[in-house]
Design goal:
With 154 residues, the chain is an alpha+beta fold. It has 2 domains: 43 residues; 79 residues, no CATH class. The chain contains 3 helices and 5 strands. Strands 3-2-1-4-5 form a 5-stranded antiparallel β-sheet. Helix 1 crosses helix 3. The radius of gyration is 23 Å and the shape is elongated.
């Protein structure tokens, strides 16, 4: 009976370890994607633009900010509606605050990709929570890797 309880406990322990590691891997993936966007947007050039339309859109759980704007690069006028590097959900008051910030920004700062000026954003955002998420993901994922490596080494 004790042997059966030990093997059952090992099975549960292995299952929990795998689940935590998968969550860690997912967090690492999401954080890595955020790092990619941040570093690619950090090389964007800055110009000025004009807001033509702004609104808040209700999503399933939260709100998004939609802003249509135009800007000029090399005597060509572009239109875009991309606000952030990553689509973020906001509560209603955050969305109103963000929308008003861009509507009232004079002049409107627009960041565009030099090699493709049609690609633009209004805010190059990055949160230190993404770094914390990446570290948490590593802490959740590494025990499975270490356990597998140690088990195969013995």
């Amino acid at each position: 009976m004790a042997s059966k309880n030990k093997s059952s406990f090992k099975g549960i322990k292995a299952f929990v370890c795998v689940c935590l590691s998968l969550v860690g891997l997912l967090v690492i993936f999401q954080s890595t994607r955020s790092f990619y966007y941040y570093f690619s947007y950090s090389h964007f050039h800055e110009t000025t633009g004009q807001v033509h339309k702004s609104e808040i859109k209700k999503q399933k759980v939260d709100y998004s900010v939609s802003i249509k704007y135009s800007y000029e690069v090399n005597e060509y006028i572009y239109e875009n509606d991309r606000v952030f590097g990553m689509n973020e959900g906001f509560n209603h008051s955050e969305a109103v605050s963000k929308m008003n910030y861009f509507k009232n920004q004079k002049p409107l700062k627009v960041y565009y990709m030099a090699s493709s000026p049609a690609t633009a954003i209004l805010e190059k955002n990055f949160s230190y929570m993404e770094i914390a998420g990446f570290i948490l993901g590593l802490l959740l994922f590494l025990p499975l890797v270490a356990n597998t490596v140690l088990r195969n080494a013995i």
